[in-house]
Write a structure and sequence with these properties.
By secondary structure, the protein is α+β, with helices and mostly antiparallel strands. It has three helices and ten strands, in the order H-E-E-E-E-E-E-E-E-E-E-H-H. Helix content is about 20%, strand content about 30%. The site of one calcium ion has 4 residues, from loops.
Length: about 220
């Protein structure tokens, strides 16, 4: 009888420890998860992407080798009690600029527990040293805030193609020619507060399109990648 009792205690302890570690595993999710940026969060939340949730990746699409740019993922629609994200890139490097709300997990940007109160998250991406297209993938979830993974937590995915090209290539076709000059001419004299401003023509990224930017384009005129 005494032995049986001891076994019972032992079994209970083992069960308790297992239950605790399961709980810790489960709770770890609200602090971000990587590896789901492309296919989405369906394995544990709503089974398929929901068009009610709109995920946008905002930031420059024509970029230069080794340069660093700011991107923002913005999520609207769905229950919206809390939200989260997972971002990956096929090349280049993601870095955290807001460590309160985002973190790096296996090279991907995910939300922190605090970050689930946000509807948008910003971070940096540094372009690779080689020319060519890079894809940025984002999955974002709009949860019902009940602290559980359930099918009422809706999500969707988005991607953005980033063209890593020559400085001066305003239209992103991997050359610097008259077409690019025309784009710059249209934005010439503008600053980032104005409608005419064209970030793809602001090669020195100082918030205006002026003579300095023209000189950059002129310097690469006629070149192709
Ligand atoms: C392997 C399972 C799993 C996957 C995949 C997963 N989650 Fe979760 N997620 C959970 C669990 C479990 C919870 C509930 C416990 C918690 O809040 O930590 C949760 C909760 C959340 C919450 C809080 C939601 C609420 O209503 O309380 C957010 C936000 C979240 N996940 C974001 C994401 C995003 C974004 C993805 C896809 C990029 C994702 N999750 C993919 C398991 C997962
Ligand atoms: Ca061009
Ligand atoms: Ca061209
Ligand atoms: Ca400029
Ligand atoms: Ca200037």
């Amino acid at each position: 009888m005494k032995k049986k009792f001891r076994i019972l205690i032992l079994v209970s302890v083992i069960f308790f420890v297992l239950a605790m570690s399961y709980d810790i595993l489960v709770l770890a999710r609200s602090s971000g998860i990587s590896g789901y940026s492309v296919d989405g969060c369906g394995q544990c939340h709503a089974p398929v992407a929901d068009p009610e949730v709109v995920v946008q990746i905002l930031g420059p699409t024509i970029v230069f080798p080794n340069a660093t740019y700011k991107y923002t993922v913005a999520t609207t629609g769905g229950p919206g009690a809390n939200r989260g994200l997972d971002v990956s890139v096929t090349d280049g490097t993601l870095t955290v600029t807001d460590s309160t709300n985002t973190q790096l997990d296996s090279g991907e940007i995910t939300h922190t527990s605090t970050g689930t109160s946000q509807a948008s998250w910003s971070y940096n991406w540094t372009a690779p040293s080689s020319y060519g297209p890079v894809t940025m993938y984002a999955s974002s979830l709009s949860g019902n805030g009940n602290g559980r993974k359930d099918t009422n937590d809706l999500w969707n995915t988005a991607f953005l193609t980033l063209i890593v090209t020559l400085s001066g290539d305003t239209d992103g076709d991997y050359d610097v020619d008259y077409d690019d000059f025309i784009v710059l001419a249209g934005a010439y004299g503008s600053n980032s507060e104005q409608l005419a401003y064209e970030p793809n023509s602001d090669f020195d990224v100082d918030g205006d399109v002026d003579y300095d930017d023209f000189i950059v384009l002129a310097g690469n005129y006629g070149k192709t990648v």
